[in-house]
User: Which sequence fits this backbone?
């Protein structure tokens, strides 16, 4: 596929890196000459210095023969104009990264399709979705959602007080009527795919797949108290801060938004029904004490300033916040933030890139989730009509899978099935495969029927 990427920042580079691995023909347009040099030295693709809003630059990138354009610069107007020009050249798929509520589906003030945009990615929404995954499953080590949030994958570190501890998956399934798949275990930094007789030990990080309707019962298994109301403190003055507060405003949680910008705080205060808005600086420990941060289930730093997020999060953790989530757009900060005790670090640019890859691949392969730092991944495949595995029983497909790969769950008409060997895979099923990284190519060949394979 011939793809043009407009924007050579973290999002553009992440997209290019993944799509190159799949053999696509790429061109990248970037206005900053230093970024052009950086991308050229790092990746093997055509890099053109200029603006994606320039017809001559787009023609130099091969827009007349392109199948897709991905406009991912930080500038809304450049991204919209790039898509509009690409539409005039007949580019079929045109995806734009757009910031701001005025471009959202429910609040949109313009018809973006008429402007040439076929799909919109909103970084704020994607970021808030990721944060809310942790809020709804406190103390999860890692999280991912499949099927638009209907199927959840959560990783928890097992303690000896959890009902799961020192039991096997077979025993747990006999004790509960839940639909559960124990997808992977990370034990002493090594990953394994458990079978029915694997004992789940304290200290393990256990990854489990289950439907959303089983969430409350699952939380009981990991000894998480179900609370209708939690104390949540968020801080920042960004688009994302407001979007997160609006999402939390619809819940029963006690939410306080601390805005370092007085003018911005006054401007947004009227947007919420239940969120308390205060002006203040959460890098001051006396303010955190005044807010009783030690009683907070979550402290979430969503400023556009990475230094503010890091310092306020660290102070909140020191002052006793139960769980801390921090945002940084600098990928090199992620390990640093973790090393100083911040529970969850989210890079909005990388989450945006993953969401775009999900849209690109929606025809066949959906989310790909790398579990912890081990070589195990969860991949969702869509079984296309005419696929060679449509109509096959699971046991026959399993024979073709290499050791270290299992068919985890089947999603059929929105419902999650735990298959056995006799289960028949049908066209239009979504199948989640748990596999070791080394088996990805062979698994892809088995399921592929002309789509795009995306790795995280």
Assistant:
């Amino acid at each position: 596929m011939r793809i043009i990427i407009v924007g050579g920042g973290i999002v553009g580079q992440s997209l290019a890196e993944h799509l190159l691995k799949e053999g696509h023909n790429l061109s990248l347009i970037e206005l900053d000459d230093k970024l052009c040099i950086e991308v050229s030295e790092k990746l093997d693709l055509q890099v053109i210095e200029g603006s994606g809003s320039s017809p001559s630059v787009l023609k130099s990138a091969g827009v007349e023969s392109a199948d897709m354009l991905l406009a991912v610069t930080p500038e809304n107007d450049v991204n919209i104009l790039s898509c509009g020009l690409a539409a005039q050249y007949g580019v079929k798929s045109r995806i734009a990264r757009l910031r701001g509520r005025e471009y959202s589906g429910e609040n949109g003030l313009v018809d973006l399709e008429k402007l040439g945009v076929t799909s919109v990615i909103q970084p704020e929404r994607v970021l808030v979705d990721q944060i809310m995954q942790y809020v709804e499953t406190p103390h999860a080590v890692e999280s991912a959602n499949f099927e638009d949030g209907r199927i959840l994958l959560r990783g928890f570190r097992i303690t000896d007080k959890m009902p799961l501890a020192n039991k096997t998956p077979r025993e747990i399934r006999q004790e509960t009527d839940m639909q559960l798949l124990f997808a992977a275990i990370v034990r002493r930094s090594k990953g394994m795919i458990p079978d029915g007789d694997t004992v789940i030990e304290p200290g393990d990080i256990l990854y489990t797949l289950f439907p959303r309707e089983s969430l409350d019962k699952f939380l009981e298994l990991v000894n998480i108290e179900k609370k209708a109301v939690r104390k949540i403190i968020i801080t920042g003055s960004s688009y994302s801060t407001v979007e997160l507060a609006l999402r939390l405003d619809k819940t029963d949680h006690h939410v306080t938004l601390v805005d370092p910008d007085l003018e911005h705080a006054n401007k947004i205060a009227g947007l919420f029904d239940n969120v308390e808005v205060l002006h203040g600086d959460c890098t001051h420990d006396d303010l955190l004490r005044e807010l009783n941060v030690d009683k907070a289930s979550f402290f979430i730093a969503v400023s556009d300033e990475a230094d503010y997020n890091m310092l306020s999060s660290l102070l909140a953790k020191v002052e006793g916040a139960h769980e801390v989530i921090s945002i940084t757009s600098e990928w090199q900060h992620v390990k640093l933030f973790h090393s100083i005790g911040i529970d969850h670090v989210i890079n909005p640019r990388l989450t945006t890139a993953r969401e775009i890859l999900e849209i690109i691949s929606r025809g066949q392969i959906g989310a790909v989730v790398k579990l912890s730092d081990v070589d195990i991944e969860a991949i969702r495949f869509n079984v296309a009509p005419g696929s060679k595995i449509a109509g096959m029983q699971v046991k026959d497909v399993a024979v073709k899978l290499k050791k270290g790969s299992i068919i985890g769950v089947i999603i059929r008409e929105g419902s999650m099935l735990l298959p056995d060997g006799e289960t028949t895979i049908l066209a239009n099923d979504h199948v989640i495969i748990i596999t070791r990284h080394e088996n990805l190519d062979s698994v892809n060949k088995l399921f592929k029927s002309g789509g795009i394979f995306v790795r995280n």
Summary: Residues 362-367, 449-456 have pLDDT under 50 and may be disordered. The two ends are 19 Å apart (CA to CA).
